Amino acid sequence: MKILKAYTYSGCGTCKKAVRFLRDHGVAFEEIPIREHPPTEKELKGALQSYKGEVRRLFNTSGRDYKEMELSKKLPSLSEAEAIALLAGNGNLVKRPFVVLDSGYLVGFNETDWAKIA
C-alpha cells in the first residue's frame, strides 16, 4: 500500500486528533500543510466523486475565509469547476483533514470512517 497523504493544519484540533489516530493505528502517512499546499484539482475532483458531487462537503464551512467570502450564498451558483478552482487555490477553504488514499478520500475526521483504513 502506498503511503497516504494527509492534508492538515497544525492549529486545527480535529487535524491533531486525526494525526494521533493515524499514529496510534500505525498507519504510514505523509502530512502536508493544507494552507501552504492545498490538495490538487485532480484530488479535489476525486473527492467530489466520492461524495457524489456534494461540493459543499469539501468546504470548511466554519472557517473565516468561507464566511468572509460569503460562500454560503455564492456556493449554490458556482459551477463545479469554479468551486474546485477556489478550493485548490485556498487551503483555508478545504474541509480538513483531507486524506488521499489508494482507494478514495476522507474529508473531515469521523473515527468510524477512519477505522476502515487503520
From TrEMBL:
<dbReference type="InterPro" id="IPR006504">
    <property type="entry name" value="Tscrpt_reg_Spx/MgsR"/>
</dbReference>
<dbReference type="InterPro" id="IPR036249">
    <property type="entry name" value="Thioredoxin-like_sf"/>
</dbReference>
<comment type="similarity">
    <text>Belongs to the ArsC family.</text>
</comment>
<dbReference type="InterPro" id="IPR006660">
    <property type="entry name" value="Arsenate_reductase-like"/>
</dbReference>
<dbReference type="Pfam" id="PF03960">
    <property type="entry name" value="ArsC"/>
</dbReference>
<protein>
    <submittedName>
        <fullName>Arsenate reductase</fullName>
    </submittedName>
</protein>
